[in-house]
Amino acid sequence: MLVPMKELVKAAHQGGYAVGGFNVYNLEGAMAVVRAAEASHAPVILQIHDGAFNYGGTMLMALCKAAAAAAKVPIAVHMDHISSAETIQLALDNGITSIMADGSHLPFEGNVAFSRQMAELVHQHGGSVEAELGRLAGTEDGLSVSEMEAHMTDPSQAADFIQRTGVDTLAVCIGNVHGHYWMEPQLDFPRLAAINRAAQIPLVLHGASGLPAHQVQDAIKLGISKINVNTEVREAFVKAIGGTFQSDQKPPELLKMLAPAIEAMIEVVADKISFLGSAGKAK
Ligand SMILES: [Zn+2]
Q: Is the pTM of this model over 0.70?
């Protein structure tokens, strides 16, 4: 069933687990997330990244909403890394009320102004807003941020930012990156603890692909209630497709190629659900 983000994140925050936000690009991705969530009795989030939106537009929005509505577990549909007010309005017009309004590329005051305006707009539609304070390094769907441009979330700014913007959740930069970790990831837990004390709202961790389970679990203890997973699911899809593709196969059996790709993504999603502690939490 399609549910508001607020409900999922609130239950996770109170229950000491995190809900997985899984980025999807197509029918197969949505099917994999829904099937894994149903098999695990877990609440999940279907996420549309700005890059995926530019590809699939309102068709992808409709697909995610329909997949959520037909599911046996609670599912929220969320727009990920949106920095255009126009796209946010379009999402709201299409019934998607959970939005990451990403002003992290702006200087602090610009991020405050953008996040506040978008929070006001989204709240008018009964929705919820995730903002990002700090700037995450790495690459996701064509959005690249170099290590030079990236910076960690400053705990001393967090309370001020949240109070002035009215956002519902906050994405933190504590040593997490988009895409691959090139060395052993080490999240900055003292920083996260300080942000959590200052913020008093559920926190979000992007870039969970490749993070060891014990670090994810420690992060959950320090207020992380939503965790985004993208790279590993995409890799599973591509690897499985590569394995089943035979150029001499005539006519090409598209469904036979896609079935193992769905299975491969289900495996990754189910694995993440289990280490986020959200298995069995579907109400
Ligand atoms: Zn992200």
A: yes
